[in-house]
Amino acid sequence: MFKDLSLFIIKPNAIKKNVIGEIISMIEKDGLRIVALKSLWMDEEQAKAFYIVHRGKEFYESLCKFMSSGPIVVGIVKGESAVKRLRKIMGETDPKVADKDTIRGRFGDDIQKNAIHGSDSLETAEREIKFFFSENEIIKLLRER
User: Fold this and answer.
1) CB 56 within 8 A of CB 118
2) Which CATH number is 22's domain given?
3) How far is CA 127 from CA 39, 70, 121, 135, in A?
């Protein structure tokens, strides 16, 4: 069910820059279909649960604090090789080295405030999608698209 899906999060710094539409447009221009979209504000505990795979790493606490510092937009994209294609559109994690035609190259501030998060594998995409969307929501969304 999750084979051609990936999750993305437009981060608080990109929301503040008012570039949600530009980011979504870049994703859609690649031919990926956005099948779900939510705007929300995670609290720090939710951010810690979402980024649990990074617990114990130097950047974990500051990442969780940043991701709970303002609203985010969470979405699911669908398309062949969605994870790989989305990661290419996003660009390198560090905006300083990301291609200027990528989301991070255009809108990222630094390695943490890089404008967008995206799943890095099919397994991660499934876990991340289930974190933000109920099974019922996912089934309905996929049936209607």
Assistant:
1) no
2) 3.30.70.141
3) 19, 23, 10, 11
Residue 65 confidence (pLDDT)? 98
Whose tokens are 């929301």? That residue is 15
Domain range for residue 63? 5-144
Do 67 and 51 meet the contact criterion of CB atoms below 8 Å apart?
A: yes
Token pair recorded at residue 39: 């705007």
Integer Cα distance of 60 and 77 in angstroms: 26
Q: Is 23 exposed, middle or buried (0-12, 13-18, 19+ CB in 10 A)?
A: buried
- Kindly report the pTM of this predicted structure: 0.94
Rounded to whole angstroms, the Cα distance separating 145 from 141 reads 6
Give the model confidence (pLDDT) of 100-133 as tens digits.
999 999 999 999 999 999 999 999 999 999 999 9
Catalogue the active-site residues: 117
